[in-house]
Amino acid sequence: MYGTIARLWPKLGMEQQLMNLAQEQAREIPGWVANYVYRMEADPNEYYVVVMFESKDAYIANAASPEQDARYRKLRELMENDPEWHDGEVVAADTVQ
Description:
Elements: E1 2-8, H1 15-26, E2 32-39, E3 47-53, H2 56-64, H3 66-76, E4 84-89
Antiparallel strand pairs: 1-3, 1-4, 2-3
């Protein structure tokens, strides 16, 4: 798996709208596997989003697509500034079922 961790700051009052739009859009993305959203305890307006794809190729294809650009522009309208992106390979994962 491959993906990104983004650090972002929603506009005041837009937090839920941003989460709803991101959740709605994720299901449209080829190769998307999962995402997790964290709200920081120290700063409740700071969020980290972890997004996972089935492969690096799927991630790169999505990032380069005009559809993703359009999705991002809608999300960006709800943020204070551009997110910080940190891309990489998922080398370990564990879940309780």
